[in-house]
Amino acid sequence: MPNRRSRLKPIAFRGLMLLLASALACGCGRTVLVPEDAPIRIGPGTTGKAYLLIDGEWTISAEKIVYPEGWYAVPPRFVHPEDFLSKERPGAP
C-alpha cells in the first residue's frame, strides 16, 4: 500500500508544472505604454465600436466599425464637443 507522501508527489509535480506554464504564458504578450496626453495613429485592420455624437448625446455604435489606417485617436481633452454642436462652425461653407 503506497503511503500518503508518494501519492502527493505526482499531484504536487503537476501543480508546479501548471503554475510554471501559467507564469511563462503571462509574459508572452507585448504591452506598449502610451503617455496619457499623446495622440495615437490607427494601424491596419483596426475594428471596434465607437461613440457617436447624436443630438448632443454620446451614443455607442451598435455595430463594430473599421477604422481607416493612418487616422489619429486623441484623448478627450483634445476634442471640444461644443464645436460639433454649433450650427455655425468657423470655416464651414
Description:
The chain is α+β, with helices and mostly antiparallel strands and 93 residues long. Helices cover 30% and strands 19% of the residues. It contains two helices and six strands. The strands form three sheets. A two-stranded antiparallel ribbon has the order 1-6. Strands 2-5 form a two-stranded antiparallel ribbon. The chain is elongated and about 75 Å long. 0% of the residues are buried.
Radius of gyration of CA atoms, rounded to a whole number: 26 Å
Mean pLDDT: 77
What separation lies between the terminal Cα atoms? 91 Å
Give the beta-strand count: 6
Set out the fold topology.
Layout: H1 4-26, E1 40-41, E2 46-48, E3 51-54, E4 57-60, E5 65-67, E6 72-73, H2 81-85
Antiparallel strand pairs: 1-6, 2-5, 3-4
Give the gist of this structure.
It contains 2 helices and 6 strands; from the N terminus they run αββββββα.
